[in-house]
Design brief:
Length: about 200
């Protein structure tokens, strides 16, 4: 795992637009035939002039276990005192791990996303977790999703590809990945059974 600082855009607050960092992107039926179908993405950094980076938080990682990843990184103890959930965070840098976690713990390379959530890309956080310490809540994502400057805004406003919803710790860190998409929609009072009739009319 590399330092997050080398590849994650720094969050800024442009005067003309509000940052979506700390919010959820919920895939609409427009994305049903894409790899992002029914995805829920936690936005870690967003600014119209630099682009957007986020982590898919509801897709299981099928190819490795937490213990296997720790073994590959030569992190002790093994077995670990504590384990956290894994997910496929997105198609970009799929071999690179990023830990999304509660912000009461921070390392030197942690990026503060919101007052309650931080992102760390160094192995320090995994060493702490393996030893039974570290942040109270955490999720290890392999890979991430990213958009160039203005791309996400176009997908939201012109293509109806994404809905924006508030983030809750239960949706971010919960283990029931299958329910997260519907629960994120419910948080903005949208019934997924009626959703297909509500998009595509912008």
């Amino acid at each position: 795992m590399k330092s997050v600082n080398s590849s994650i855009p720094v969050q800024s607050e442009p005067e003309e637009a509000q940052s979506l960092a700390g919010m959820l992107l919920v895939a609409s039926p427009m994305l049903a035939q894409t790899p992002f179908a029914q995805s829920v993405i936690y936005v870690c950094a967003h600014a119209p002039d630099t682009g957007t980076m986020g982590l898919v938080v509801n897709k299981r990682l099928a190819v490795a276990s937490f213990d296997e990843l720790l073994t590959q990184l030569d992190i002790q103890p093994m077995p670990p005192v504590r384990r956290i959930g894994l997910c496929a965070g997105g198609p970009v840098d799929a071999g690179r791990g990023l830990v999304l976690h509660s912000a009461e713990w921070e390392g030197e390379n942690s990026l503060s996303v919101s007052p309650n959530i931080a992102l760390t890309g160094s192995v320090d956080v995994l060493k702490e977790i393996a030893a039974g310490k570290g942040p109270q809540e955490a999720l290890l994502a392999m890979g991430h999703a990213s958009w160039t400057a203005g791309q996400l805004e176009e997908e939201i406003l012109q293509q109806d590809a994404w809905l924006v919803a508030p983030a809750t710790r239960d949706i971010i860190f919960g283990s029931d990945h299958a329910a997260k998409w519907r629960r994120a929609l419910a948080s903005i009072n949208i019934d997924p059974l009626r959703l297909s009739g509500q998009v595509g009319h912008a």
